[in-house]
Amino acid sequence: MSTLFVDRRDIHLEHDAGALVVRDRGERLATVPLAPITRVVLRGSVTLQASVLGHLGDRGIGVVILSGRKGEATLFFGRPHNDARLRVEQSRRSLDERFCVGYARALMHTKFERQYQWLSALREPYPQARYALTQAVRQLQDQQTQLPRAHQLDSLRGREGAAASCYFAGLRAVVPQSLGFNERNRRPPRDPFNALLSLTYTLAHAEAALALHAAGLDPCVGFYHQISHSRESLACDIMEAVRPLADRMCLEMVASQTLTADHFGHSAAGCLLGKAGRTRYYAAYEAHAPAMRQALRQEVKDLARTLMPDLPEPATYVPPWIPSPHDPGSDAADAADALG
User: Fold this and answer.
1) What's the pTM value of the predicted model, to 2 decimals?
2) Per-residue confidence (pLDDT) for residue 64, from 0 to 100
3) Contact partners, residue 303, CB within 8 Å, separation at least 6
């Protein structure tokens, strides 16, 4: 299963016999079968009829629209399964402070462990950064050992903030100096690597929200991230566990020079990935995303099982939108390059 990225001016999408027809100023540019597609990402002046969204929704295909120079995401959800008991239980547990703290503590444990295991593995290919990486690993392990003592969400947020500081200090030691990465910053990102992190987090967050909806969960009702206006709090929760895998994708893109500083530009909106860079990015994202998607799928599955152990397996654990880690690539991946 694959993502179809459409980032090109004056593109029009039509549905025809189980496929998306892509037209450029009336000329037929490509025909992409819907069967292997699990999500569609649109950016730029793309037009389509409402019926196309209906066909995508019927197939459980989520749509992510990146709008404006910053690429802020708007989501169109596919059709979820119809067992509302899961959402009722989710809402009930969101008001249970003990459950929220326990769930958040488990999230932080997973996040810290993935962070320090990755940084530890980086010491071999980056011997010049071994000291900084070792320091970060030790500090992350120390924060992890203190998690059982955190009995409130605010205490966990404090641990997360302290861990983030040492984690990004370790990551800074291996990011190419040409990218000017000194610390994590956003809104707007001020350097190429932060811009890359922000874009990747945006897409990963959208995948988390779409996957939660497809599984019958409400992406807006979270446990660690409490309910807040205009925020998909549960998707933010799920993102904490998979964020280190998104970071790994970003480092691999710049370490391989798939993306360099020349692919980014600066404006009043901050540092942004340019059009040529986005074309390269989409293909690289899709190539590196399977590990992150597998982890995301497992987090959704485990949460649903925790909330309702008796929920029917097919409805909860194999929603049509969430890709299986064993699914092969498809022609849609090639289409992503063509339409970028």
Assistant:
1) 0.85
2) 86
3) 103, 217, 238
The tokens describing 79, both together, are: 């059709």
- Are 101 and 223 within 8 A, CB to CB? no
Residue identified by tokens 């958040």 is 104
Strands 37-43, 27-33: pairing is unpaired
| C-alpha to C-alpha distances, 56 to 8, 34, 48, 63, 198, nearest whole angstrom | 20, 8, 12, 8, 27
> For the chain, how big is the Rg over CA atoms in Å?
20
3-state DSSP of the chain: CEEEEEECCCEEEEECCCEEEEEECCEEEEEEECCCEEEEEEECCEEECHHHHHHHHHCCCEEEEEECCCCEEEEECCCCCCCCHHHHHHHHHHCCHHHHHHHHHHHHHHHHHHHHHHHHHCCCCCHHHHHHHHHHHHHHHHHHHCHHHCCCHHHHHHHHHHHHHHHHHHHHCCCCHHHCCCCCCCCCCCCHHHHHHHHHHHHHHHHHHHHHHHCCCCCCCCCCCCCCCCCCHHHHHHHHHHHHHHHHHHHHHHHCCCCCHHHEEEECCEEEECHHHHHHHHHHHHHHCHHHHHHHHHHHHHHHHHHCCCCCHHHHHCCCCCCCCCCCCCHHHHHHHHHC
pLDDT 10s digits, 124-181: 999 999 999 999 999 999 999 999 999 999 999 999 999 999 999 999 999 999 999 9
> In one letter, which amino acid is 338?
A
Q: Which of 226, 222, 242, 257 is nearest to 295 (CA)?
A: 242
In one-letter notation, the amino acid at residue 94 is S
CA angle 177, 182, 183 (to 5 degrees): 145
Q: Are 290 and 67 spatial neighbours (Cβ–Cβ below 8 Å)?
A: no
Contact assessment for residue 44 and residue 9, using Cβ atoms and an 8 Å cutoff:
yes
Residue 155's pLDDT is what?
94
Q: Is the pLDDT of residue 42 over 70?
A: yes
- Sequence-distant contacts of 123-131: CB under 8 A, at least 24 apart: 126/173, 126/174, 129/170, 129/173, 129/174
